[in-house]
Amino acid sequence: MADKQPAVWVISGPSGVGKGTVCNRLRERRPDLHYSVSMTTRAPRPDEVDGTSYHFVTPEDFQDLVERGMLLEYAQVHGTNYYGTPREPVEKALAQRTPVVLEIDLQGARQVKQNMPEARLVFLTPPSWDELVNRLRRRGTEDEATQERRLETARMELAARDEADHVVENRAVEDTVSTLIGLMSL
Ligand SMILES: Nc1ncnc2c1ncn2[C@@H]1O[C@H](COP(=O)(O)OP(=O)(O)OP(=O)(O)O)[C@@H](O)[C@H]1O
Ligand SMILES: Nc1nc2c(ncn2[C@@H]2O[C@H](COP(=O)(O)O)[C@@H](O)[C@H]2O)c(=O)[nH]1
């Protein structure tokens, strides 16, 4: 019998909403899924490990990956750095019928949906705009100008939330993860 479970889960939403936090917890509760590690030209944050958080690459190396068709999708996010999903690990996981989780921005999500219409897009929203701003500020990984740029993108992304297959409010992390797990088993 055909497996009806959609194999690619795209987790998107504005900067600071909690995508990374939710995906890290999802990984603990569902270690059987494949979690894509993106390429980025962004500089690592102090706690980030190359190859685990991201593959940190130079703009030249990123361009080379694009030209060689090594990325499933890619985008310039917040008008600054480039981010992209390595194609091969995703294709390998899917060939083994392992569901895949991509934590990517909305531009990338649109590309994935175009190429893989069966992919399911989950858009995380904050409980309120003020809470989103507070989460981004509290994280404290960006300077004020960068936070402002991220919040500008956030306004556009929130306005496009209806493009998603599922919109989930990230109030308490554990509840959000339970909702995701529930959606995955539908
Ligand atoms: N449900 C939640 N309630 C309260 N705080 C949260 C929640 N989820 C995440 N946070 C906190 O909000 C901050 C931003 O979370 P996180 O880094 O996961 O966001 P993100 O969506 O991945 O952001 P970006 O797109 O910028 O990478 C972190 O400090 C995190 O601990
Ligand atoms: N289109 C893609 N977007 C990605 C990818 N990996 C991460 N992201 C998104 O970038 C922003 C910023 O991330 P940060 O780590 O600098 O805070 C965030 O929205 C991520 O979801 C990717 O491979 N492709």
Automatic annotation (TrEMBL):
The keyword Nucleotide-binding applies. ATP binds at residues 13-20. One of its GO terms (molecular function) is ATP binding. The keyword Kinase applies. PROSITE patterns: GUANYLATE_KINASE_1, GUANYLATE_KINASE_2. GO terms for cellular component: cytosol. Its EC number is 2.7.4.8. Keywords: ATP-binding, Cytoplasm, Kinase, Nucleotide-binding, Transferase. Pfam families: Guanylate_kin. Residues 6-185 form the Guanylate kinase-like domain. It is an enzyme of class 2 (transferase). It catalyses: GMP + ATP = GDP + ADP. Its main location: cytoplasm. It comes from the Bacteria. It is found in: Cytoplasm. Gene3D superfamilies: Guanylate Kinase phosphate binding domain, P-loop containing nucleotide triphosphate hydrolases. Essential for recycling GMP and indirectly, cGMP. NCBIfam families: guanyl_kin. Belongs to the guanylate kinase family. This is Guanylate kinase. The gene is gmk.
